[in-house]
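QA checklist item 7 of 12: single-chain prediction sanity check.
[x] sequence parsed
[x] length recorded as 451
[x] structure emitted
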Amino acid sequence: MRLSMIGTGYVGLVTGVCLSNTGNDVFCLDVDQAKIAKLKQGKSPIYEPGLDDLLERNIAAGRLKFTTDAWEAHKDADMIFVCVGTPSDERGHTDLKYIDSAADGIADVLIRLGKSAKPKIIVVKSTVPVGTTFRVRDRIRAKVGPDIQFGMADNPEFLKEGAAIDDFNKPDRVVCGVDADWVGQAMRDLYDPFVRNGHPIYIMDVLSAEMVKYASNAMLACKISFINEMANLCEAYGADIGKVREGMCADKRIGNQFLYPGLGYGGSCFPKDTLACIMMGEKSGVPTPVNKAVHDLNQAQRERFWGKILAHFKAKDAPGGLTGKTFAFWGIAFKARTDDIREAPAITLMRKALSYGARVVAMDPVANENARRELGPNYEIVDDMYKAVEGADALVVSTDWDDFKSPDWGRVASLMKHRVVFDGRNLYRPTQMAAAGFSHVSVVRAPVSAR
């Protein structure tokens, strides 16, 4: 098939690259000229394991092209995928200006092609509030009139950052909401190469497909907040959350994914989609107390951990309470195997430290460039994990990169001013840290003082 992708962000680029890798001809469209120029050279603007190799391979094969010209991208496309950003505010209101702009660009191309052209399928891939795919349909229809035909689909993505290539190539399921049988058959044909493992393609109505994405992410966010709540209870009563988790997750009805205690969820999906469910409930008059609790618990988990930092230093809970202290941070990205720093717990804690008068020095294996660009000069970003701890009063481990799992603790001890580790990912055993001479404060275990 001939396909076009509007947007070369995380979703659009991964989708375009993976679909080109199965023999489709793909044009990726973006308004950012610098990004398109970089992509034409085979350089990805995002970090995702495995993406660079597929990008170079399919550009070389001539199946993957990039442009800033909507006419060039869409004129020959059988399907046009809308993969633009849908940012939201702190209450969950979704800004659809990029969706509307994409719809207008598609309409202009359809008008130019005329009513004799083969009908195209317009696929909303972005995560959008329920009803947005019909909003796109109606906006295009208002511009092109009744005689130009096209089909509509919603095709939510389920890509985990850091494992997106595998997720796309070996999906648990493919969900397609369609407005006509012929659209559903075309979507089935497109995705058939990706479900040879027997996993299903679900063809359903558009509104249900849009809701599947929100329901899925809201459930996963719920699991994260739930295990953190249980971990806090375990800490209060002296139980071991690791053993509790093992016993609980042995139940096949529960499973073990997304049930790891830590600093809570971050990134571009779980926070936004949980808030979107809350906002959809407010707009429709349907209470969403579970989603509200999930969001509140997630935010409180960071505050709880920050409280442990203040308690260790016996600092006043007020600006200036940590003046003169230096905090080293290992990890900035919201999770390992990505350079995404959106809603990252590390940034919440770093901002807290600065607001309390502390100096912040941080290092991440891949997110440093994004951090330097987004955070500003008050955050010292260094490229070596050991340089980050030089003269530090405390080390905060906020992302579970492999790089941080077995450091040279003797070297760390020689570089730090005080041997204190705040383990936000429960990477280290208390006995191990005590033997190395460190005070160790983790998310859910009682502190173990250095001997």
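[x] summary fact logged: The chain has a mean pLDDT of 95.
[ ] second reviewer sign-off
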